[in-house]
Design goal:
The chain is of the alpha+beta class. The chain contains twelve helices and 21 strands.
Length: 401
């Protein structure tokens, strides 16, 4: 048995904690919030991603495909709501067809079940969609990720683990065969530390003596819900063909596990790491972002799509127009405000976004620095990978499958 401190009670941290607890380790999960899934996990769209978009052979692709299966299986086994409606990626004009065909070619390389559809075939799934062609992806669905987190927390406690909620991490230091972990409430001596700190991942790494290799820059994703009369226009999930100039997927329509339909997210620079609105400003977070050369280089290369995202953030009418390209008839009057999320995006000094999962290790420590979408989908598989990394850095054999 090892004493292990896990920092972060989002879905990745809890999945790691549950896996460690299940094999008999003594686990303490530390999180500054008073409940689980308060940030990225509890504020995302609930999509179970198929793995379609990611580079073949990448960690993202492999873990997303495996994670789509294991997440649905786990959620169902624990009575957490799941829908498996599938999705359409739709090309709304001829210029988007090359991008759609690239996705279709990538699908079998990633073991994703997908097939091209004509407009008439697409309307058999989504009668109100407008397109010149579409890609049908069967393995995409939705799940209640906050519910998954509550189930994982129950698993941790049932195995003898402890959730130290409302307790803020301060610093950690590896000293010989132990890690001294300090919070604002306790000093703990552990055999190992695993940090899955999301929006604070780089800061937790630095406070533990580990170079994160990138800076976390927060991007707010804003959502709307569709009023019930407009929600009838969408049966499952409808996505645009991704714009190759921009690193995010673009606004899309998602029917959630509760039957409601929400739209989004866009992507704008947040003025706080937990900045869920324009009015939330934290000077330290703004200074951290603006002092990072990578942000300026990213902005310089994405001026046009970045400006479009800001306009869409400030104008419900513009937001609705983006949705109407996919499903005509949606108007600004059909939109209701919904909670926003913030994506913790790791950004390199040269301005490139860290596209794959990024895990940094040091003796007796493992830090998950970058775990963007599809991290929730892949969380059970990420946990397997992280535990193997932990066993490597503290000298144990890899964890059993």
């Amino acid at each position: 048995m090892a004493r292990i401190v896990v920092v972060g009670a989002g879905i990745v941290g809890l999945a790691v904690a549950a896996r460690l607890s299940a094999r008999g380790d003594e686990v303490t999960v530390v999180d500054k919030e008073d409940a689980v899934a308060r940030h990225q996990t509890g504020r995302n769209s609930g999509v179970v991603h198929s793995g379609l978009y990611y580079a073949p052979g990448s960690l993202k692709a492999r873990l997303a495909v495996a994670g789509a299966r294991s997440m649905v299986e786990y959620a169902r086994s624990r009575g957490v709501p799941v829908r498996t409606d599938g999705k359409l990626v739709v090309a709304t004009d001829e210029s988007e067809l090359p991008g759609l065909h690239r996705l279709a070619e990538r699908a079998p390389l990633n073991d994703v079940p997908a097939r091209m559809l004509t407009p008439d075939e697409a309307r058999e799934y989504e009668p109100h969609v407008r397109c010149v062609a579409a890609l049908r992806v069967e393995s995409t669905g939705t799940v209640d990720y906050a519910g998954v987190c509550r189930a994982l927390a129950e698993d941790v406690r049932a195995a003898g683990g402890h959730l130290a909620l409302g307790e803020s991490f301060v610093a950690a230091r590896t000293v010989g065969d132990r890690v001294d972990v300090r919070t604002d409430a306790h000093d703990r001596e552990a055999d190992a530390l695993v940090a899955c700190a999301g929006l604070q991942a780089d800061r937790v790494a630095l406070a533990s003596g580990v170079d994160p290799g990138a800076r976390i820059v927060p991007f707010r994703g804003e959502y709307y819900g569709l009023r019930p009369e407009a929600a009838a226009l969408v049966r499952g999930l409808v996505y645009p063909v991704p714009d190759p100039r921009f690193p995010f997927l673009g606004v899309h329509l998602t029917r959630g596990v509760d039957g409601s339909v929400h739209a989004g997210p866009n992507a704008v620079l947040a003025l706080a790491r937990e900045g869920y609105s324009w009015s939330r400003v934290v000077p330290r977070d703004v200074a951290d972002a603006l002092s990072w050369p990578g942000l300026w280089r990213l902005a310089r290369h994405n001026l046009v799509p970045g400006a479009a995202e800001v306009v869409r953030s400030l104008s419900a009418r513009t937001f609705a127009a983006s949705l109407a390209r996919l499903v005509p008839g949606i108007t600004a009057e059909d939109l209701m405000p919904a909670p926003a999320g913030v994506r913790a995006q790791a950004l390199r000094r040269d301005g490139s976004m860290v596209d794959d999962f990024l895990v940094r290790t040091s003796p007796r420590q493992v830090h998950v620095i970058n775990a963007p979408s599809p991290a929730a989908t892949a969380s059970l598989e990420i946990a397997r990978h992280v535990v193997d990394e932990l066993d490597a850095v503290d000298g144990r054999q890899p964890a059993a499958a």
